[in-house]
């Protein structure tokens, strides 16, 4: 998946062990977390006929997500099923105030696995911040336990999972990065100033079972989607 999906991603990874990993994709607004995640899922499924993926979008509507993807040259993939939580909340407005959305997500994963079996192999949650907001637990310890068992469910289902997380500019996290310790990988996307102006970058902070570069690589939008270029000139 790492070497044969997003163009140039193989420059970062020397190995390609991705199955049953939970990968955090984190970054500020505008870093293209959703675009990157959908793109890597789509290319992987194109390379593996018979497999399907599930993309759960909590903040953004399905229509808005697809429109944004189209604007950067990424076509919809009919084997990525998009669960639009905005539509669910609108349809069940009165009940949604009392809905446990983490439990709803777990049921969605279990039911899809029961229906599609091993063909269901890749999952994305966009975003963890939004899920926390909708999961009304004020006790931090209880939330830690919930996320632990949520991650366990993903592993037990045998999924490669991408969990998107918005990075607040003040550096404060709801669960103090507990998810990063529980996850198998952390990919950071961002925007930085370089000698050539502002550039988007990708950096792999960790990825268990894999050998990878620790440098920041420039990421650009080409006519047919995203591409990873060489290391940042500030990180040579």
List the helices and strands and how they pair.
Blueprint (H helix, E strand, L loop, with lengths): L21 E6 L5 H15 L4 E6 L4 H10 L8 E5 H7 L1 H4 L4 H16 L3 E7 L1 H7 L5 H17 L3 E7 L11 H5 L2 E10 L2 E11 L9 E6 L2 E7 L5
Parallel strand pairs: 1-5, 1-6, 2-3, 2-4, 4-5
Antiparallel strand pairs: 6-7, 7-8, 8-9
General description of the model:
With 236 residues, the chain is α/β, with parallel strands linked by helices. The chain has a single domain, classed as 3-Layer(aba) Sandwich (Rossmann fold). The protein is 34% helix and 28% strand. The chain contains eight helices and nine strands. It has a nine-stranded mixed beta sheet, sandwiched between helices. The longest helix has 17 residues.
> What is the CATH homologous superfamily assignment?
P-loop containing nucleotide triphosphate hydrolases
Say how many strands there are: 9
Radius of gyration: 17 Å
Mean pLDDT: 90
Query: Which percent bin holds the helix content?
Result: 25-40%
Spans where pLDDT lies below 50 across 5 or more residues: none
- Strand pairing plus helix content: what structural class? alpha/beta
- What is the second-level CATH architecture? 3-Layer(aba) Sandwich
CATH class, named Alpha Beta
Shape: globular
N-to-C CA distance: 25 Å
* SS strand fraction: 25-35%
Give the strand order, joined by hyphens, for the main sheet.
3-2-4-5-1-6-7-8-9
Largest sheet: 9 strands, mixed
SSE string, helices as H and strands as E: EHEHEHHHEHHEHEEEE
């Amino acid at each position: 998946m790492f070497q044969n999906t997003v163009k140039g991603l193989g420059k970062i990874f020397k190995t390609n062990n991705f199955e049953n990993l939970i990968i955090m994709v984190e970054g500020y607004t505008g870093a293209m977390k959703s675009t990157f995640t959908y793109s890597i899922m789509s290319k992987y499924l194109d390379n593996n006929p018979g497999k399907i993926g599930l993309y759960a979008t909590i903040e953004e509507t399905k229509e808005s997500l697809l429109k944004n993807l189209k604007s950067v040259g990424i076509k919809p993939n009919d084997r990525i099923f998009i669960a639009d939580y905005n539509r669910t909340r609108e349809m069940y407005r009165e009940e949604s105030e009392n809905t446990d959305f983490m439990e709803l997500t777990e049921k969605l994963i279990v039911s899809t696995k029961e229906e599609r079996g091993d063909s269901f192999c890749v999952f994305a949650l966009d975003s963890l911040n939004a899920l926390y907001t909708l999961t009304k637990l004020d006790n931090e310890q209880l939330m830690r336990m919930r996320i632990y068992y949520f991650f366990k469910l993903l592993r037990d289902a045998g999924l490669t999972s991408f969990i998107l997380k918005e990075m607040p500019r003040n550096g404060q996290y709801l669960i103090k990065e507990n998810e990063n310790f529980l996850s198998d990988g952390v990919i950071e996307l961002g925007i930085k100033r370089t000698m050539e102006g502002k550039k988007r970058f990708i950096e792999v902070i960790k990825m268990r079972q894999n050998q990878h570069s620790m440098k920041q690589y420039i990421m650009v939008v080409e006519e047919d989607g995203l591409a990873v270029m060489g290391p940042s000139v500030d990180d040579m």
